[in-house]
Structures are given as C-alpha cells and as structure tokens.
Design a protein that fits this description.
The chain is an alpha+beta fold. Helix content is 19%, strand content 29%.
C-alpha cells in the first residue's frame, strides 16, 4: 500500500507541475467562431447515436449535433422513478438485437459500425451497465473495435474506463466498466458545481476552436464526475485533451486541479477513438461550452477507422454475400442500409470490357437499390468513383470499357433504408425495416 500511495502521489506532483495558471487565462473573450459542418460521406447510416437509456439522463437533444449539422438518433427511456420492465426490454432489443434487427441498432449485419459515433450521457454508470448484461456491454466494445467512436460524459466516462480508484486506494474492477478507455478514473467528489476547463497546449481540441482566444472554458457544469489518473496507470496511447481548473472554488473535498477533465485514446488504426469527459458541456446551446462539446465530437469522428476491403474478386467467379449476423462470417454477410461493401479486383491486360454484375437471390429485396461503384485509384465511394451505376433495383450491371490493367476498387452500396421518426422513447423505424437484417446479394466480375 505504501508503494501504491507513493506512485499516486508522484502522479499528483507531476500533474500539479503542469497545471495552468487560471488568472493568466481569464481575459476578455472573443465571439465564438461559426461551426464547420461535418458531413457523413463514408457509408454509415447516420453520424451519432445518443444513449439516453436506463441509468443515464433522459436527454432528447444534443445541441452540438445541430451546431455541426450531424444526423442523430437516440434511445430515450424515462427517469428512474418511472422506469418499467418494458423499458429494459426495449433497451436490450435496441442495442443487443431483436427479430427485426438481429444485430441491434449500433451495428450492421456484418458487425461494422452503423453510426460513426456513440454519445453516452451522464447519470449512474452501474445502473446504466447492469441491465445491458455481458451481451449488451459487448456490443459497445465491438462497436469501437469495428471502427466506430465514442464520447461519454460523467457516467459515460465511468462506463468506458478500465477500473475506478476508490477513496481508500482499492481498485474497483467492476464488470460494469467496459474498458474501452484502458485507464483509471477517480471520483471528484464534487457535485452540482461548475468548474473551469483549460484546453491543453497542443490539444487536438484546439484544431477546431480557440475558446475565446484564451483556450479556457468557464462554468462547465460538474456533478459527481471523474478525472483521469495521470501517472504510471496512464495508457501509452492516451491523450490529455483538457484539464480542470478548480482554483475559483472556496472548498472541495478533493483537490483535482490540473488533472485530466477530458481525455482520449485510439489504440489501433482499425479501432475508433474513445473520448471521456468528467463534466457536462453537452447541454449547452451556445458559447464556448458548445464549442467544447462540438470539438469532442469532431475529434471522435476524425478517429473513425478507415474503410476495409471485404475481399478480392476473381474474374468469372461469383461471390455470395448472403449470410446473416448469426452465422458470424462477416466476409460473406449481407449488406446493411446505406452501407458500402468494398472489394478489389485485378484486371488483366487486353480485357475488352470489365463487367460487374450484382443480383439478389431473394425476391423480397428485388426493389432495394444496390448501387455499384468502381475506381482504379482508391476506395470507390459515391463522391469519388470514376464509374458508377445508381439503380433503383437490386439487379444491376456496371460496364467499364477497355479498362487499363491493374488493381480496381469495387463497391456495392445499399441505397434503401428505413423511415426514422422520433417517438416518446426515441427513434422509431418504419418502412423498409427488412433491410435492418441485411440485403443478400451476389457479385460477379467478368
């Protein structure tokens, strides 16, 4: 225990040494700069899915998504005193899966992230996590490992952590913490009180805004959140994005001045970025707090994994993309709504025409639009592909006359999606709900 306390105190000294001077930052503020619109153009269904489910705030609005022009959906359950067993069933069906959506709202049938980013509200991390069980918690981990990103405030930061350090030095390795932030957090013991937040020099959050010209955000609401333990327990890939300023407070049960208030990690290129925040800037409709939350979302979205190749197509051979989520063979699984499947094909010299055929073996999906894109230089998306066929049907052909020899990128895009409306408990799907379990198709190049 003495050795542990020595390491912890060493971390305290290290962080205190870099804590900014609050008085030097407080000066006349500049007007906030306008937002930069962030577009969804890489084959996700939408940008942000907000969890306002069991155990966390029943928030319906995330102003930063409107500020950035992002598309958002949400699950919203009632406050604790109005919850019913049906709410747990709804949450688990939404996240884990159901008959009409076997893979759940967050993932495509092949396990790829359906949204670019999850936003997790504040509340009670263990009350949030327990109803999900192991299966629900795994969905969040799978989402990150498949390339989607995550932003969590307060309880969302606790939920993401590896473990929590208790007041007596005990390490709380509760199964409710999912470890997508592979580091340690500690409760601030500060409730219903705003703090200041310094944005670190060199922080990626400064790429987007300067927060009034002094890189400092005042009066950020704080209610029982956490801070990052910045010592030998800090992950190698971890980043401190901003730190707490509590120098203006008359008293506090714990001195966490200068400790990480916002931190992030992206452990692998093929994983998404995880951003944790101990405070609550998410409800702000204007000013620097809105900018702070918007910067977190923008940095999270930048952390999405790059597109992945499903496989290499061979001239004259059909590739059947017909398997379901439950068969657990993502290289041959059906395509989801507004999703791309990417392939490559090596074109030999002297080929008169490269022909790409896409067809569905299931008549249920014959009117689903499966578009074909191809490009000789890069992943074939709608905005860059040199060759394309945007049909209304699931049976289509793309012909490329006299193709130059070499590697070509080919993609299939499902243009059919559901109708989404906002109901009492969040987003409700109608219309072409059959695409939620994926559209089967066969692709052939010749």
């Amino acid at each position: 225990m003495k050795k542990f306390l020595f390491v912890l105190m060493a971390g305290l000294v290290l962080v205190a040494a870099v804590a900014p001077d609050a008085s030097a930052r407080r000066k006349k503020k500049q007007e906030p700069a306008p937002a930069k619109i962030v577009t969804n153009d890489k084959g996700y269904y939408k940008d942000v899915w907000m969890d306002s489910g069991i155990g966390v705030s029943s928030r319906r609005d995330l102003p930063s998504t409107r500020y950035l022009g992002l598309q958002m959906e949400a699950l919203v359950t009632p406050p604790k005193d109005k919850l019913t067993a049906e709410d747990t069933l709804l949450q688990n069906a939404t996240i884990i899966g159901s008959e009409i959506d076997e893979n759940g709202v967050l993932l495509y049938p092949d396990g790829a992230p359906r949204f670019r980013c999850i936003y997790m509200n504040g509340g009670n991390a263990k009350a949030l996590s327990r109803p999900l069980g192991d299966a629900g918690r795994k969905v969040f981990t799978d989402f990150i490992h498949a390339g989607g990103s995550y932003v969590g405030s307060c309880a969302g930061a606790f939920f993401a952590c590896h473990y929590k350090l208790m007041d007596d030095g005990v390490q709380d390795f509760s199964p409710e913490y999912i470890g997508i932030w592979p580091g340690v957090v500690r409760n601030t013991l500060l409730t219903d009180t705003p703090t200041g937040i310094f944005v670190d020099e060199g922080s990626p959050l400064l790429k987007y805004y300067d927060y009034g010209g002094d890189n400092y955000v005042e009066e950020v609401y704080h209610n029982g959140g956490c801070y990052g333990i910045c010592d030998t327990l800090w992950p190698a890939a971890g980043e401190v994005l901003a730190r707490y300023d509590i120098s203006m407070l008359d008293s506090t049960k714990r001195d966490f001045h200068g400790y990480p208030a916002i931190w992030s990690v992206k452990e692998r290129e093929e994983w998404g970025r995880v951003i944790s925040c101990g405070s609550h800037p998410e409800g702000s409709n204007g000013g620097e707090r809105l900018q702070l939350m918007s910067a977190m979302l923008r940095y999270a979205l930048e952390g999405n994994a790059p597109a992945r190749i499903k496989g290499e197509l061979t001239l004259g051979e059909k590739r059947e993309m017909i398997k379901t989520t439950g068969e657990q063979d993502p290289a041959y699984t059906r395509i989801g709504d507004l999703q791309y499947h990417h392939f490559t094909v090596n074109v030999p010299a002297g080929l008169d025409t490269l022909t790409i055929n896409v067809d569905t073996p299931d008549e249920t999906f014959k009117d689903c639009g499966l578009w074909i894109f191809a490009d000789p230089a890069d992943f074939a998306f709608r905005e860059n592909a040199r060759y394309q066929n945007i049909t209304r049907k699931a049976r289509t052909t793309l012909e490329i006359p006299a193709p130059a020899p070499g590697l070509y990128y080919v993609s299939v895009y499902c243009a059919t999606t559901v109708e989404a409306t906002e109901g009492e408990k969040g987003t409700v799907y109608t219309g072409h709900t059959e695409v939620l379990n994926g559209v089967p198709y066969v692709i052939e190049v010749k």
